[in-house]
Amino acid sequence: xxxxxxxxxxxxxxxxxxxxxxxxxxxxxxxxxxxxxxxxxxxxxxxxxxxxxxxxxxxxxxxxxxxxxxxxxxxxxxxxxxxxxxxxxxxxxxxxxxxxxxxxxxxxxxxxxxxxxxxxxxxxxxxxxxxxxxxxxxxxxxxxxxxxxxxxxxxxxxxxxxxxxxxxxxxxxxxxxxxxxxxxxxxxxxxxxxxxxxxxxxxxxxxxxxxxxxxxxxxxxxxxxxxxxxxxxxxxxxxxxxxxxxxxxxxxxxxxxxxxxxxxxxxxxx
Length: 270
Description:
By secondary structure, the chain is of the alpha/beta class. Helices cover about 40% and strands about 15% of the residues.
């Protein structure tokens, strides 16, 4: 068994586990995610074998007591081949670290990873209700990340409401023959919703205000995604290969070819 643990947020955990799950599949090894054994109960994986509090405690305390080895992917410059040999050398092992990256294997088993992280039926049903009336619209999902982005990389991707509105306005201008319905999710409780409503109209902007699983599910069902560089929008794009625009420069013009796809963008996360 490979016990997979890391800190970080929900979608960081999805991606990190996805890489190690894919490696395990390729090498005939069973894996379990420590995070999804007890936290973020929105996904199918939470109801699969080994994803329970008992296995979480077993892995945690066995590693803490030194009864099983720990293999750490803590550096981008680490010798990945050597770390793989360590994984192969132990029947039971704890794998941790953000830099567990097996891109080609992830893509090989991408459909299985998506199935593991399928949303529970109640979350899909709530999303379907949220999307009612948008069948003839272009659904634009916007992820506004603030909070820790005030300091991460010196606040490089902490954009104002006005900057988001300017980018969304450019997207709307690219689709003059279509109605665009904008779904805005994020982690800023002080978001000035009135500014977005004034800019795009009451019937064209929705603030779902769901839990992380509900927001991720809703974004995954949009036709396009826009947001600051973040694993949240990246994972949302993974489910249906949704075009995603990461705002790196709020002053850069937005064009149709500005949007990327998951299989390209997931190789560019820091």
